[in-house]
Design brief:
Helix content is about 65%, strand content about 0%. The chain has one domain: Malate Synthase G, Chain: A, Domain 4 (Up-down Bundle). Helix 1 runs antiparallel to helix 2, helix 2 runs antiparallel to helix 3 and helix 3 packs antiparallel against helix 4.
């Protein structure tokens, strides 16, 4: 993921934190910055596996993105079931699942605030997948899936 023009996650006029601070303030942005720095340092005479180091650091950030996708899909999945199902018994469990997923997302965004800018696109991407999951769940329990 290349940064072009300005560093990712920072607007014009904002001061970018020092590298050590960035690790604590926005982990995913730190992983992107570190991977890019390693790739730029390939010519160094240090006997390090530069490309694989960069990929490993990037993968740490990718796992946070994957968690965001998963938790948003989980929320949408249960919201669709709440909307479409007349069943009373499972509703409290679905709401609990939504609260838990929201807490997980809050933790992710605290660790990596730059993920916040991706939420709208992730919701759009995950909505159809979540709807299919909800429809399959409801169908397994003999409910109509037209509303999903």
């Amino acid at each position: 993921m290349r940064c072009q023009g300005r560093r990712r996650g920072y607007r014009r006029g904002e001061v970018m934190p020092k590298i050590g601070q960035l690790y604590d303030q926005d982990f995913i942005l730190w992983t992107e910055e570190q991977a890019a720095a390693l790739r730029r340092s390939k010519g160094s005479n240090l006997p390090l596996d530069w490309e694989n180091l960069a990929e490993e650091i990037e993968s740490l950030g990718i796992s946070q993105r994957t968690q965001l996708h998963s938790q948003l899909r989980r929320i949408l999945h249960h919201l669709f079931k709440l909307e479409a199902s007349p069943a009373a018994d499972p509703r409290a469990g679905w709401r609990a699942t939504i609260r838990d997923a929201r807490a997980e997302i809050q933790d992710l965004l605290e660790a990596s605030p730059s993920l916040r800018r991706e939420i709208d696109a992730v919701v759009k991407k995950q909505a159809s997948r979540a709807a299919k999951l909800a429809a399959a769940d409801l169908e397994e329990h003999g409910e109509l899936v037209d509303a999903v």
